[in-house]
What does this fold into?
Amino acid sequence: MTSRPARDGDVLTATGISKSFGGVRALRDVGLTVSPGTICALIGPNGAGKTTLVNVLTGVYTQDAGDITFKGQDIGRTGADRRARAGMVRTFQRVRLFPQLSVLENVLAGQWSRRPFGGRPAATKERALRELEEFGLLKHAHRSPAGLTFADCRRVELVRCLLGDPALILLDEPAAGMNPEEAQRFVEHVAEVQRERDLTILLIEHNMNVVMSLASWIYVLDFGQLIAAGTPGEVRRDERVIKAYLGAGE
Ligand SMILES: Nc1ncnc2c1ncn2[C@@H]1O[C@H](COP(=O)(O)OP(=O)(O)OP(=O)(O)O)[C@@H](O)[C@H]1O
It folds into this structure.
């Protein structure tokens, strides 16, 4: 199974990615591309290799084989900091906010990582407040995130990502832990913001409703290999995908 052929202007292209941990071949010859202004999803049963792939793409792990191009530059062997500064930002499966800082401080804290040697943050407080307002979070700006609902914490993380004007946002299971209504609201919000700002997103998600309503292109991993790639309609009908998910008891 190969990915959609790379096109000029693709934000992210990975080809032939393999990664093993001891005897476990977590990824085998995986390729994917993410086009600008689209939401692309990566799905697969538990243990399929999704997190490993995200860690390879973001530079947390180095692949054993394969190449990664980001905005036309070969970044396959660069560190996570360098990729973040180049505009590749991510959220994590678990919410990562500092409870001792306010919501406003949390979203501004992300900015420092893009400025080496302690320069001024790229985004101003005014912009951060405007973004928080847009996400319905202004009333929480000066409170600790510890008191927020899970869905609001996810929104805070998204604001933190957006303040860096990223070229690519990787959302790692953003809807995990949300109830169906929260997930639905989150989907609508992400879809709206993505359209308005022409964002490029790679979404890793278990919740099929979320994936099917947001993504225009879906990659499916199973046992470390890409078993399907296509539009939501194509992937939903794909025999191998159905089998992989039924086999995993999902
Ligand atoms: N640091 C590691 N050391 C050893 N094995 C690992 C490591 N990370 C992942 N693996 C193994 O690689 C395979 C892929 O795991 P990975 O976490 O990438 O899957 P996943 O699709 O993200 O799963 P989930 O949906 O459960 O998060 C699994 O067999 C896992 O046990």
Notes: The pocket of adenosine-5'-triphosphate is lined by residues 21, 24, 26, 44, 46-52 (CB under 6 Å). The longest helix spans residues 180-197. The beta strands are 12-21, 24-34, 39-43, 65-70, 73-74, 88-90, 168-172, 201-204, 217-222, 225-230.
